[in-house]
Design a protein that fits this description.
Length: about 325
């Protein structure tokens, strides 16, 4: 199946957004977005239902705070979600600009800043009807020397795109390749769901090796960081995550699709769990909380090779009584 109509619409939308300003962005959104719009965003954006609201809450503050804002894509893909049968376009990479004004409680330092993002747009009848937008706010804090959490287990840096430099899928791709990618992804999801049901929080590397290359790369959210190879991934993320979060339940996804050797999904929320203490170096409070997560994958051969992950960590913490955005603002930008 060809997704050229959907891809072209989203690329035209992105092109106009690239030339927009805080004063004009509302007009751009109203040109491309439907009247029955649904927006899913990280905290503090949350759910929105109109182009005007999203312009005022999400985009205008970005354009006001970052001069010369650019979208620097690493992955661009489209497909039909196996969840609802809708057609989606996903873009992942970084927004880049000169951080001149206050944003999310972070005072501008007049230097370049990179905002890691993943954006899903559902297209129907020539309009964008749904959007999921994840941005890594903590990652921007790190670029300013702000560390709202204890030292992370993984590495912290501005993440690259795919090792193969083939993530911008503007053309058509063999649907059979996408089906292969989705099959591997769903097998991996099934394995993790079975782990949740079993209560085994210290699984052997051989279990991951069923769907992952040994030299896989996992680019996690700031606060957790990135890690390389199955064994280091288990040491630096999987075991701390599984051993320090109890009663883990997978809630499903809003969108999940593949194109070529890439796949992606997001949920609202994906996961629910209870913090028992130790995850990200934080104490436990026994509070049940939801996690909103985006994953983007690259398959190589018959296994997954690279995985870019964004977790709405500020939202997960907010549910437990810690608002790191407001706290940063009070302390560093009163």
């Amino acid at each position: 199946m060809s997704y050229q109509t959907e891809k072209q619409l989203v690329r035209e939308y992105f092109a106009e957004m690239a030339n927009a300003s805080a004063e004009t962005v509302k007009d751009v959104l109203n040109k491309y977005i439907s009247d029955d719009y649904q927006f899913y965003g990280v905290y503090p954006y949350n759910e929105r239902s109109s182009a005007d609201d999203v312009a005022e809450v999400v985009w205008q503050p970005l354009y006001e705070a970052f001069t010369g804002l650019q979208r620097r894509e690493d992955v661009f893909m489209a497909g039909t979600s196996e969840i609802d049968g809708d057609n989606w376009v996903m873009s992942m990479g970084h927004f880049m600009g000169l951080h001149d004004g206050e944003w999310m409680g972070i005072r501008g330092h007049r230097k370049m800043a990179m905002i890691r993002y993943a954006e899903f747009n559902c297209v129907s009848n020539g309009k964008i009807v749904k959007t999921g937008l994840w941005i890594d706010i903590i990652g921007v804090m790190h670029q300013h020397g702000i560390n709202p959490l204890p030292p992370q287990t993984g590495a912290s840096f501005v993440y690259p795109g795919p090792q193969t430099h083939d993530g911008l899928q503007f053309g058509d791709h063999d649907s059979a390749e996408g089906e292969k990618t989705l099959a591997v992804l769903n097998k991996m999801i099934d394995d993790l769901s079975e782990l949740n049901r079993s209560g085994n929080d210290n699984c052997p590397p051989e279990l991951l090796a069923r769907t992952w290359h040994d030299d896989m790369i996992w680019y996690g959210p700031a606060g957790i960081g990135a890690t390389y190879t199955i064994r280091r991934y288990q040491e630096q993320h999987q075991y701390p995550f599984r051993e320090n979060l109890a009663d883990k339940v997978f809630n499903g996804h809003v969108s999940r699709f593949a194109e070529g050797n890439y796949a992606c999904f997001f949920g609202w929320p994906n996961l629910s769990n209870t913090n028992t203490g130790g995850f990200m170096g934080l104490p436990g409070g026994g509070v049940r909380a939801d996690m909103r997560v985006v994953d983007v994958y690259r398959r190589e051969g018959d296994k997954l090779k690279e995985n870019w992950v964004l977790i709405d960590i500020p939202y997960w913490l907010k549910q437990q009584g810690v608002d790191i955005i407001e706290r940063t603002k009070r302390i560093l930008n009163p």
